[in-house]
Structures are given as C-alpha cells and as structure tokens.
Design a protein that fits this description.
The complex is a heterodimer of chains A (about 325) and B (about 700). With about 325 residues, chain A is α+β, with helices and mostly antiparallel strands. Chain A contains 11 helices and 12 strands. Among the domains of chain A are: about 45 residues, Uridine Diphospho-n-acetylenolpyruvylglucosamine Reductase, domain 2 (2-Layer Sandwich); about 100 residues, CO dehydrogenase flavoprotein, C-terminal domain (Enolase-like, domain 1, 2-Layer Sandwich), CATH 3.30.390. In chain A, the strands form 3 sheets. Chain A has a 5-stranded antiparallel beta sheet. Chain A has a 4-stranded antiparallel beta sheet with strand order 9-10-11-12. Chain A has a 3-stranded parallel beta sheet with strand order 1-3-2, with helices on one face. In chain A, α5 packs antiparallel against α8 and α9 packs antiparallel against α10. The longest helix of chain A is centred in the last third of the chain and has 21 residues. Chain B has about 700 residues and is an alpha+beta fold. Chain B has 3 domains: about 120 residues, Aldehyde Oxidoreductase, domain 4; about 200 residues, Aldehyde oxidase/xanthine dehydrogenase, a/b hammerhead (Aldehyde Oxidoreductase, domain 3); about 350 residues, Aldehyde oxidase/xanthine dehydrogenase, molybdopterin binding domain (Aldehyde Oxidoreductase, domain 4), CATH 3.30.365. Helix content of chain B is about 25%, strand content about 25%. Chain B is built from 15 helices and 29 strands. In chain B, the strands form 7 sheets. Chain B has a 7-stranded mixed beta sheet, with helices on both faces. In chain B, β8 and β9 form a beta hairpin. In chain B, α12 runs parallel beside α13. The chains are: A alpha+beta (about 325), B alpha+beta (about 700). The interface between A and B is large, with 36 and 44 residues. Chain B: GO terms for molecular function: iron ion binding; oxidoreductase activity. Chain B: Keywords: Molybdenum, Oxidoreductase. Chain B: Pfam families: Ald_Xan_dh_C (PF01315), MoCoBD_1 (PF02738), MoCoBD_2 (PF20256). Chain B: InterPro entries: Ald_Oxase/Xan_DH_a/b, Ald_Oxase/Xan_DH_a/b_sf, Ald_Oxase/xanthine_DH-like, AldOxase/xan_DH_MoCoBD1, AldOxase/xan_DH_MoCoBD2, AldOxase/xan_DH_Mopterin-bd_sf. Chain B: This is Xanthine dehydrogenase family protein molybdopterin-binding subunit.
C-alpha cells in the first residue's frame, strides 16, 4: 500500500502548522470527497492532517458589529447543520440546500468546511488516464470537446470548464456568508464569494486559500431577508445527483417592487455564482415573469454555452422565475 | 455417478406452488451471514488469499511495447506482476475477450494488460498504479453511427436469423393510408449489479483427481464458468470446481465468465497452492464485464385509417466489438408482436475498437420493443385511435413469424384489465391538455412481451434422507431472484411433501448440470428438471424410500420444438409529470398487468416484476453510459455519473398478473418473469411524456433538457 503520514493535532494552530510546513500535506475532515480522490489516485498526499476532531463543532449566534450572525464551526456535519433549529427557522434556504445535497449517509459524514472546499466535479478530473489541467496543469482539458452536460456556462476558461458541485455553498453565497480562515499568520475573514475562484489559467486552484490555511468556520448574517430564503435544485434524478442548475434566493418587496433581493446559482460555474447583475436588475422593479426573465438574461449576457450546455439557459430562467415568484407569493401568505 | 434418467414430467399437483413461502435464504441475507464471492474464508485452503489488481490499457488500439514492473515489484507487499510475456499460456484462445495476457495486442481501452499479485488489496492497488506500460498506439474507431453499421452478422443473440422478410413491405407502405417513419435510439447501458464481479481462485493438487481449480465466483452459472474456463487452462470440466452460494445481482453481466475470471485462474496457477482474490472495481466494470450496445431502430409502420397494420419494418443498428462479436437481437421481438401481412426486420452492426458488449436486462426486447411501442403510440396519434384500442386491433391470431399458435396469448386481457385498474378511460385524448400547478401531466402505455425460454442441459438429483426428508440438488445459481425458494416449492409439490422436508442444494458445479440464470429461463428450465427428477424418483423408489436412495433425471419433453410458441405478455401504464419551467420529469404512477403462466410465489414474483418495472423506469429516465470516442472508453464510469433510479424516483410502482397456467410449457405451468417487467416500460414513460407535453422524444433516456427550448 502507499504509505502516508496521518496526524491528528489537538488545536487548529497545530493543524495549520502541520500542513503549512509540508507541501504534501492535506487537511482531512469528513473525507467524503478526499477519500474518493485517494482511491482514484486523483489526490496523492504524503500526509493527512485530521481536523475532524478539533473543537470546531459549535453552532451559535453572536452579536457582532455586522449584526447578529450564526457562527458555524468547520467540523459541524451537514446533517446536523440542516437540522439546527436556528438554521431551519432563520436560514431556511441554507437548510434546504444542505438537504438537497448528496445522500443521508454522506450528509452525516461531510463537514461544513469540507463541503465548501470539495473539489470541482468533472468526469475527466476523476479519471487519471485522461488529460486534465486541474489534475495535471498543462495536460489539456478533456471536457472542452468531451462529455459536457455538467460543464460551466459562466466564468469558465479554455483551461477548465468544471463546475463547483456544492449546494450549501450556493446558499451561503446568496446569504452574504463570511468564511473564517486561520493561517500561519493568524485569522482572517472573507466573503464566501471570495473563497472560490474561477479557473482562469490556474484551474488546479479551486480556492484563494494559501497552502496551510484552515477554514475554521463560517458566519452567516441572521437578517430578515435570510429568514425568507429558499433553495431550488434541478437535477437528473429526484435525489442524490449534482445540480444541473440550482437557485438560492431571497426577496422582499414593498408596494409591488423589490426592496431587497439575493440571488445565487449553482451548476453554472467553477464557483457558486452570486448573480449580482440580476439582483441589480430586479431592485426597485416588480417581480413578475418578464422582469425575472430579463434579470436572468442580464446575468447570462456573457454566458458561453456548448451544445451540451445550451439547456442550462432556459432551465436557469425557468427555475429562477419559479423560485422568485413563489417567494413573492409567500410574502402575502 | 449414476446414470441420468430421461423423464417426461407431468403437470404438478400444486400445493406449495402459488403460495407465499417466505424466502428460504431471507434470514441469512438480512442478518449479513450470507457470504458473497470474495468473502469466503471458511473452506480449507481458501483462508488466506493473495490479492490481485488489474492494470488496464490506456489506448484503444495498438500493441503493448513494454511493461515495466520494476517500481511495482519494489513496492512493499507486491509479489509479482503478470503480463503477456509472463502469464501462463492458455490452451484455447478462440474467445478474444477471454484470451487475455497472451499477446501484445490491445483491442480496446480498458483491456487487461497486466495483473499485480500482492499480499494485500492495498498493496496490489498501489502496485497496479506503479506498473508502467508503454504502447504503440494505432488509430481507433469508437463512435457508433448508423452509417457505420454495415456489417451483417450471421445470426443475432443467441441464434436468431439476422434478417426476416415476409410479403412486400415497400409496396404495402406505399399503399398505406397512414405511415409512421421514424428512428428511435437507446444509449449504452451498463448492468451494474450491486456486487461487482469477484472471484477467489485456488489451483492445487486434489485428493485423487490430480489438479483442481477451485473457484468461488460471482456468476449466474457455475457450470458455464467451469465449462468455459476448463479447456482454456487445459483441465477437464470436472477439475474446475465452481461455487456461487450468494450472488449480489447479475442482470446478464455475470451470465458468462469475463476476462477477470481467466486472470484469476492464471494467477492462481502461478501462486499455487495459495489462492488469489480478485474483486473488479465499479470503474473497471465499465470496460470489462459487458454492457448493452447503443441501438438505433428505424421503424416504418403502415396502417389503414383505423390503425390496422399492413406493414411493419424494423431495421436495427447496433455496435459490436472488434475483439468479439455480440449482436443484440433488437428487432427479434418485433417479429412476433403484431399482425401485419408484410413484415421485414434486419440487424446491422458497426464493429468498433471498444469493450465487448453482452447480455443486459432483456437484451433485444428492451431496446426493440421500446422502439416499436413508441412508434405504435405515434401511429395511434396519427390515426386518432386510442392507444389501447390500437393494440387490441393488431393482436395476431397466430405467431406471425412461424404461423404456429401461441400456447397462452392473453394480451387483450392484460390491456383491458390493466387499463381498468389504471383508470385509463379518464384520459383526455389530446396531448398537453392537463396542467397541475407547474406540472404538465400525461399518461401513456405500452405493450410488453418476452419469449418463454426453456434451456436444454438441465438435470436434477433427488436423494432420500432420513425423517422423510429429501435432498434435491441442481447446479443452478440463485442470483437474488428467489430461485432457491421457488425450486423448494416445486420440489415439494413434485415429491408430494411439505417444503420443510426439502433440502435444496444449488450453486455448485459438482451438482447436476444446469443452465445459466438468464433469459428469464431459470424457473422453467431448472423447475422442469426438478419436477422430472422427483417424479422419476417416486416412480422408481415410491413414497417411502430407504434413506440413501437416489436418482438423477432430466426433463425429456421439448416444448420449444412442439406445436406451439411461447410468449409472455403485459401492458404497462405510466403517469408522467413534466415541470413546465425546468423540464424535470417525475413518474408518480407505473403499473404493469402481466400474463406469465402460473406464478410460483406471489411474493418473489411481485419482487421480480416490480424490479423489472423499476429497471425500465431507470432506463427511461436515467441510465446512459457516455463513451468518449476520442479515448474509446466510457467516461461516466461510476454511480455518481451513471445514474440509476434512486428511491425518490420510484413512487407508486405496482404489478399484477392474470391467474393462469401454461402446462404446455412446463409441468409447473410457469413461464419466466425476470425480464418482462423491463420490456415496454420505457416506451410507456416516453408515451406518457408526449401526452403530458406534446413533445415526442425518440431517444432514451428522456431528460429535462428535452422539454426546454433553445434558450
């Protein structure tokens, strides 16, 4: 067997030091993504630093200068987070997104930070016998001219057209979530939308984290808008499939026009896609079929589709229209 | 070994047959005590196997230039690496799929080019990753097109005529008031049984017979494995001892041994007497253990204005592998389904540098009847005739292919009873007429048919035990269907005893020969032999035999060469909802009404039929293996990307059957039920999707994007 070191540090600082000082080290949490990659030969670390038992499993509300936030520890299991009373009552879109992901068994195993940091999905990335720029930079992108049903339509590059598979991260992108990161030089915070990156000419990098930086938790603002959020996933079967497209949304209207709106998409890009142009287009206008479709089209102005992904444009439009119209109907109820 | 008696079985006096005897192996399975192939450790000599890991070709065509095993051999725990230069020679290399590690040729991407032997599975796997294989690659062809399907096979699976032509189809079509002319496609599909293919092999000196090759294999037929492998490795069939006590599904892919079994045997010879264990991975199954070819069916139906068929033409195109031929019998089911004076069928293949296709879940009938039954729906629309009524109008008096009468043809009853139970009469005639919230709602139906197969070469042995019990032995395999249970019931009734008095032994090649668990033929083939043996035993030894009295018999009757033809039939009804904004598809109701002769056990039968309907649903909505022709292999090679129906996709699915018995066919009155549930189901779903939306989909699977515009 291939020998590798396995260490289980007792503090986050030790964990950071263990990875930062070793180029071949990787963090291991729930393992639902990394262990697959170990078996397939996609990931071949020399050392695994197990962070799953670090004291990062708390879910609690905190009053901050940015208002009340829900602070979620990195190792909180997806199933536990989806079922948490505050998430269910104040962040329904996040709860729905979590429950739309994977299977019951995997949600019991997968962690919050691991879900954010799972690799983008592509059949060629997982198949070490085919070229893939993400796995082997410079080897070429097999998906450009190959199997493309799940390919990105926004923000892709000639080097990579993979999509980020997380549902949870799409809801977090819509909900202005901050990611708390511990590095060798201390702690920093960034919007979750700055965590994931587009492939550009470095598709091997899924995130903006430096080697050794550890996501210790996330902070989600508990706003009135977040309390009416929702998540809608369209997939090839009724459960246990990655999104063809997905929509995380929240909207508040007054006098028939939008006061505030959040919109993010999954299944369309290398990162969860916060649809800011669409939000802008919707603000101060009505929420009706035409307005939402126009907003979607504004966001998709720069979309690049192939024969395999053409469907994503009408599917996104349909799912977004349905989701926002239902939210507005729900306001009256 | 005693002589085998030939006995014409007489119809059983049924008592246990037809009752809900609980699965006799249920407790073993639900408590986890049932051992599957590579879990066997108890038997002497099998306790400490070495592990094997396969190395597969990364080119689709060419030659292996060199296999550099130095890094692998330097790895801790790796004992040896066998390739085409070092593996033992096979004595028979006729079968191109099975003749692995014999020469440098590469016939398809994913072919076995080396095998690593190691102390542990982990070491073997890492060793395989360290084997460096260099190739001299050649241009390959891996894309299936109708234009490229020009090869005419001598026959189609298993031995049907390649083409048929009765009457004058072209003239009839030219003179028909209504013509449907369209092409229908089914994708590559992989069987994906829950238990991957797996083998323990031990090559050793036996007690008296010289060399023995002992195999514990996950197979649909232990005798088939023994008789295939034995001549290849230079042994007599009796020297290859195969058992398969429990098998986690096969769906055709374990019907015959694949190259992994040959590799296990070759490696075991090298490590003798220490056994080896080889478990194929899920990803490897997409290259090594069979699949259904993609098919295209060009259908031309001619009919009068009332929908009575005047011409049926079914031209089937599929793909085979250069290294070994397999011709899916896509159009064969069409030959016997509907009456028409003018009928023509044909099969043509594209021969590609790809993995070897094989049997998968109703080969032939599934893709072929799909095409025919969607075309029939189009005909119903074109004629303005209700789809159920259209079928009723075209049911043949006799088998159109042979002119012989059917033994038991009750399709009309299936159609009428099924329509009644489903609530078909409430259906609006127009497509796209029903909207429920965001969902378009429709219903559709299709006919199902499957031939009655009864295989030759089956024998059973009955031995009296003490206490009025009987051992009944036959070397067949229960792959999870309930065969153990049903054969116990058949044996009990044939012997006139309680099922508790029957000690059934199966799944061992040292038991009397039995045919493969395939073609929905198991109960009919094995049950007839068991009936014959029991009846011959009673005739010979009476009802109170001395313990030890024993007799082996085969069933001497051959209904398939008699005056009748044998087909089961069914009618499948589906309700489909299609989301008007996203195109998502749900199937809230699926119901099949069948005529299958006598049902041996309602519990296991319902499981078979409902399981078939679920597989049909899965093929309708999900299953598709995507081959990337640039590389030559399937890139959706795991269960995250090769979708099968999940629990949430399987809603109200039910099956029922007409009470009946076909004693012309078997002494139990049974025909097979393993595959008919699959046939027609995808067509019913597609036809319902058309009724919901007005969009006619002609290629499987039907996915959400089919119902969305261009953007």
């Amino acid at each position: 067997m291939r020998a590798l070191d396995y260490v289980r540090p007792s503090t986050p600082e030790e964990a950071v030091a263990a990875v930062a000082g070793d180029e071949d080290a990787m963090f291991l949490a729930g393992g639902s993504n990394l262990v697959d990659h170990l078996k397939l030969g996609v990931a071949r670390p020399g050392r695994l630093v197990d962070v799953s038992r670090l004291p990062l499993d708390e879910v609690a509300t905190h009053d901050t200068d940015r208002g009340t936030v829900l602070r979620v520890g990195a190792t909180v299991r997806n199933a536990d987070l989806a079922a948490h009373p505050v998430v269910r009552s104040r962040l329904p879109g996040l709860s729905r997104a979590l429950l739309a992901g994977a299977s019951g068994q995997i949600r019991q195993q997968a962690s919050t930070a691991g879900n954010l940091l799972q690799r983008t999905r592509c059949v060629y990335f997982q198949d070490v016998t085919t070229p893939c720029n993400k796995r082997e930079p410079g080897s070429g992108c097999s998906a450009l001219e190959g199997y493309g049903r799940y390919n990105a339509v926004l923000g892709a590059s000639e080097h990579c057209v993979a999509t980020h598979p997380s549902d949870m991260a799409v809801a977090m992108a819509a909900l202005d979530t901050s990611v708390v990161v511990l590095g060798p030089d201390g702690e920093r915070r960034m919007p979750s939308t700055d965590l994931h990156r587009l492939p550009g000419d470095e598709p091997q990098r899924d995130t903006t984290l430096a080697h050794g930086e550890l996501v210790t938790g996330v902070e989600i603002p508990l706003t009135d808008l977040a309390a009416v959020s929702t998540y809608r996933k369209v997939r090839d079967r009724a459960s246990y499939a990655f999104a063809l497209v997905s929509v995380a949304a929240a909207v508040r209207t007054a006098g028939g026009v939008v006061e505030d709106v959040r919109l993010a998409w999954g299944g369309v890009a290398h990162a969860p896609w916060r649809a800011r142009r669409a939000e802008e287009a919707l603000r101060c206008g009505p929420v009706d079929e035409q307005a939402v479709a126009a907003a979607v089209d504004a966001e998709l102005a720069e979309a690049e589709t192939s024969e395999a992904t053409t469907y994503k444009v009408p599917m996104l439009r349909g799912a977004t229209v349905e989701t926002l119209l239902a939210l507005v109907e729900g306001e009256d109820a | 070994m005693t002589d085998t008696v030939e006995q014409v079985p007489v119809p059983l006096d049924v008592r246990s047959v037809g009752t809900r005897l609980a699965r006799v192996d249920g407790p073993e399975k639900v408590t986890g005590r049932a051992r599957y192939a590579v879990e066997h450790r108890d038997e002497e000599g099998l306790g400490d196997p070495l592990s094997l890991w396969l190395v597969q070709s990364t080119v689709a065509k060419g030659e292996v230039e060199a296999v550099d095993a130095s890094a692998a051999l330097a790895h801790d725990g790796v004992l040896r690496v066998l390739d085409h230069t070092s593996a033992p020679r096979l004595e028979d290399t006729e079968d191109g799929e099975l003749a692995v590690l014999q020469d440098a040729r590469v016939h398809f991407r994913g072919q076995i080019v080396a095998v690593v032997v190691a102390e542990t599975s982990e070491a073997a796997r890492e060793g395989a990753a360290l084997v460096e294989v260099s190739y001299r690659a050649e241009p390959h062809a891996a894309a299936f097109t109708v234009e490229g399907a020009t090869y005419r096979p001598d026959s189609v699976n298993p031995a049907f005529e390649t083409d048929s032509d009765d009457g004058d189809v072209d003239a009839a079509l030219a003179g028909s008031a209504v013509v449907v002319d369209a092409s229908y496609g089914t994708p590559y599909e992989h069987n994906n049984p829950m238990e991957p293919h797996a083998t323990i092999a031990r090559w050793h000196e036996g007690d008296d017979d010289g060399v023995v090759l002992r195999l514990v294999d996950s197979t649909q037929g232990v005798h088939g494995v023994a008789s295939t492998i034995a001549p290849m490795v230079g042994l007599g069939k009796d020297q290859v001892h195969v058992t398969a006590p429990y098998v986690g599904g096969g769906f055709g892919s374990k019907g015959l041994p694949h190259a992994n079994v040959v590799v296990a045997a070759l490696a075991a010879r090298e490590t003798s007497p220490r056994p080896v264990s080889l478990a194929v991975t899920r990803q490897q199954m997409f290259a090594l253990t069979g699949y259904r070819t993609a098919t295209v069916s060009r259908m031309r139906l001619g009919a009068d204005r009332d929908g009575r068929l005047t011409a049926i033409e079914h031209r089937a195109y599929a793909q085979s592998a250069a290294v070994k031929e397999f011709a899916e019998q896509t159009a064969v089911g069409t030959r016997s389904l509907y009456a028409a004076a003018n009928r023509r069928t044909s099969h043509r293949l594209a021969v590609l540098d790809v993995a070897v296709p094989s049997w998968m879940r109703a080969p032939g009938e599934m893709p072929g009847i799909f095409a025919h039954e969607v075309a029939m729906d189009e005909l119903a629309v074109a004629c303005g005739v209700d789809p159920v009524e259209l079928r009723v109008r075209n049911i043949p008096e006799r088998d159109p292919e042979t002119g012989k009468p059917f033994s038991d043809h009750r399709l009309v009853e299936c159609l009428r009873e099924g329509a009644e139970r489903f609530g078909w009469a409430d259906r609006p005639a127009q497509a796209g007429a029903t909207l429920d919230g965001e969902w378009r709602v429709g219903t559709g139906m299709a006919v199902s048919t499957y031939p009655g197969y009864r295989m030759p070469g089956n024998e059973a042995r009955v031995t009296a035990l003490d206490g009025g019990r009987f051992e009944v032995a036959i070397g067949c395999v229960d792959i999870g269907t309930g065969a153990r249970t049903v054969l116990t019931q058949i044996a009990a009734d044939a012997l006139g005893v309680d099922p508790a008095a029957v000690v059934l032994r199966v799944a061992d090649s040292s038991l009397p020969p039995a045919s493969v668990a395939g073609g929905s033929s198991g109960t009919a083939s094995w049950g007839s032999a068991v009936s014959a043996a029991a009846q011959a035993f009673l005739h010979e030894h009476g009802r109170t035999p001395d313990p030890g009295a024993s007799l082996t018999a085969s069933a001497a009757d051959d209904p398939l060469n008699g005056d009748h033809v044998f087909h089961s039939h069914g009618a499948v009804f589906a309700e489909v909802r299609v989301h008007r904004r996203t195109g998502e598809i749900r199937v809230p109701r699926l119901f099949g009404m069948y005529s299958v002769g006598r049902v041996m056990n309602p519990t296991t039968a319902r499981s078979q039929l409902v399981g078939g309907l679920v597989m049909g649903l899965s093929s309708a909505l999900h299953e598709e293996s995507v081959r990337d022709p640039r590389f030559g292999h399937v890139v959706t090679q795991d269960l995250a990307t090769y979708h099968v129906a999940s629990h949430a996709d399987v809603l109200d699915v039910d099956a029922d059957w007409l009470e009946g018995s076909d004693e012309e066919f078997t002494p139990m009155g049974a025909r097979g039920i393993g595959e008919i549930g699959i046939v027609g189901t995808a067509a019913a779903v597609i036809n319902a999707a058309y009724h919901a939306t007005g969009v006619r989909v002609r290629d499987l699977p039907v996915t959400a994007d089919r119902f969305l515009g261009e953007g």
